[in-house]
Amino acid sequence: MKDFLLGKTLTELKEIASKLNMPSFAAKQIAQWLYQKKVTSIDQMTNLSKSQRSLLEEKFEIGASQPSSTAKSVDGTIKYLFKTDTNKFVEAVYIPDNDRATLCVSSQMGCKMNCLFCMTGKQGFNGNLTSNEIINQIQSIPENDKLTNLVFMGMGEPMDNSEQLFKTLEILTSDWGYGWSPKRITVSTIGLLSNLERFLNENHCHLAVSLHSPFPEERLSIMPVEKAWPMYDVIKLLKKYDFTRQRRLSFEYIMFNGFNDSLRHAAELVKLLKGMSCRVNLIRFHAIPNVELKTSDENSMIEFRDYLTSHGITCTIRSSRGEDIFAACGMLSTLEQKKKQQDNSPEI
What sign has the CA pseudo-torsion 105, 191, 277, 298? Predict the structure, then answer.
């Protein structure tokens, strides 16, 4: 089986060029064809000789694949379904908003973290995505040239797939790759300290931390990760870094009626985040099967936001997008995968 070129870093492409006895500068040429000119076949790399292209074609292919299906929301949001090399499925969500166009990408097939409020976690964990499979979500949608922002907030915990995440970020931000500014990229995490520190040290992309309660025991009841990586330890690490310049730090806070939406929670949140340059994004909860949590009402969210704002914390209520196609926050689950598996099951 041939290996894929899409998703390779410049270092990896140099190794390939060396093994094929190609000049070292050919690696940068290949990278430009892949990430800037976005070719779909090796034969289109016309500044490589025919013999060099033939050598590449013997062992490699581009590795780009189109979405298996799409679903479009009434608000313009589009959900794309991608099939992986292991015959699993992942979803990416395109969100147009005036002069902005954001793509929410997945980093894993399912998720290990099993947060109570997230449909992705309910389907279990089916493996990490490769850098090829992550980059393909970006490059293979029809709107790829319109993208202004990228968020790693789709299926999976990005920091739990750190090697492939860091490869992808290198491709996105390097001049030989997409050449994006790190300010266009946000990586979300529930707080895996083992890889979070490396992320903070090695790049300048924005960071979003899933918080959802300022009280450890309460957070633990909906987020098992609190036991392994306590919220207080995550905050302690973040306070060592400077977020007053280009990099932005935000905390994601899903609002649950009668659970975490009181002013007592808001006051504790002010204490927890004291002295930090950050923002809090309040998110409406989207009901999922077999979970009794309910979303907060609009007045509670406004009151919570205004309390934080009056105490010096920038706070916004995030607009919900794509709920009608199960593309909103916490709703990605590749139900299509189960359907296809059922369709292909043998008859009894």
Answer: positive
